[in-house]
Amino acid sequence: MITLKIQTHAKTELVDITQQVQERIHQSGFREGLCALFVPHTTAGLTLNENWDPDVRRDMLLTLQDIAPADPRHRHGEGNSPAHLKASLMGASLLVLVEQGSLQLGSWQGIYLAEFDGPRHRRIQIKLVASAD
Amino acid sequence: MITLKIQTHAKTELVDITQQVQERIHQSGFREGLCALFVPHTTAGLTLNENWDPDVRRDMLLTLQDIAPADPRHRHGEGNSPAHLKASLMGASLLVLVEQGSLQLGSWQGIYLAEFDGPRHRRIQIKLVASAD
Amino acid sequence: MITLKIQTHAKTELVDITQQVQERIHQSGFREGLCALFVPHTTAGLTLNENWDPDVRRDMLLTLQDIAPADPRHRHGEGNSPAHLKASLMGASLLVLVEQGSLQLGSWQGIYLAEFDGPRHRRIQIKLVASAD
């Protein structure tokens, strides 16, 4: 298992981890198959989205804030229930295909750690699986 | 393929299936790779989230209710369009990494069947895939 | 890698790709394991949901519109930040289990390309991975 360690710097943030994932695949010598990523956290998730205009990430986080706002009806003592829901909306696992050692991403696509209750130390676990075709 | 059968007991509910998934992995003798989970249903999903304070699940379901409320503009005759959307928001498939026969979950992380139109009999399908590393 | 090419026809649309995915699996001769699907786009996603009543898809897209509306606070120049967020809410990757060459879907379950900024030419990338069990 490959483990990336990421220090986040804000309460909510989309951190581009594409380069680090790609480097680890190169180091492993893996060529063809799936790259499975997993966050072992409950207030952070993983997502793929645009890596060009930073305003896309800003706008996404703004609307996610509207979708899962602080709510006086929430009972969880830590007060971070919105972060837990946002983590589930993004998801804790994702897959990217790999060919000839390279992540098969779209031209404008990056892999993001979605922090919703930072700043924190976060980990991302990765496993590589060979494909049949 | 491993199949878990789950009886849900409420309209909306997050049912912790972590233990059952782990037991089936132990029984299979599988050691290293990916555990892929899938729900063959359209009003239930799968998610990972906190397994400690039950108020986290309660708060998440409350906000999901606000996100996808009953709506007089909906046309689907069964009246459960919000349940269909919530299932897609959580997702029907997920991955957890396995090392030395154990699910590599975070300390506070459980695997949940997300029921949005219960109570019902639900199934979860599991396949185990060996990793290259 | 298998690549499907899909032409979408509306701004937002759920396009059933189940048949095309199944045909490609038959052609490949693949029998047992995982079918991993990935969209290399940032304003389209993948989801599983009901393939019977088209009103389910219509109702889902209607509520997604409410969840991620146009917003004057958004800064991204293309004006499609809601499409980017909806793509992340659905997700860019998913898994379906395969047995005896057949996708193991529920009776009412189809695989959908979720278009949020069409009409466009879209691609779906697929890899097949043999399972250990």
Topology of helices and strands:
The structure is a homotrimer of 133-residue chains.
Chain A: E1 2-7, E2 13-16, H1 18-28, E3 33-38, E4 44-50, H2 54-67, H3 81-90, E5 93-99, E6 102-103, E7 109-115, E8 121-130
Antiparallel strand pairs in A: 1-8, 2-7, 3-5, 3-8, 4-7, 5-6
What's the helix-strand series of chain A? EEHEEHHEEEE
Q: Under the CATH scheme, which architecture of chain A would be assigned?
A: Sandwich
Q: Note the main sheet of chain A.
A: 5 strands, antiparallel
Strands of the largest sheet of chain A, in order across it? 1-8-3-5-6
Unreliable segments of 5+ consecutive residues of chain A: none
Radius of gyration of chain A: 16 Å
Instruction: Supply the number of structural domains of chain A.
Output: 1
Q: Which shape of chain A, going by the Cα principal axes?
A: elongated
Helix content range of chain A: 25-40%
Oligomer: homotrimer
What does this structure look like?
3 copies of one chain form a homotrimer. Chain A contains 3 helices and 8 strands, in the order ββαββααββββ. In chain A, 26% of the residues lie in helices and 37% in strands. Chain A is of the alpha+beta class and 133 residues long. The first copy, chain A, has one domain (9-69, 89-130): Jelly Rolls. The first copy, chain A, has helices at 18-28, 54-67, 81-90, and strands at 2-7, 13-16, 33-38, 44-50, 93-99, 102-103, 109-115, 121-130. In chain A, strand 5 and strand 6 (102-103) form a beta hairpin. The first copy, chain A, is elongated and about 50 Å long. The interface between A and B is large, with 37 and 35 residues.
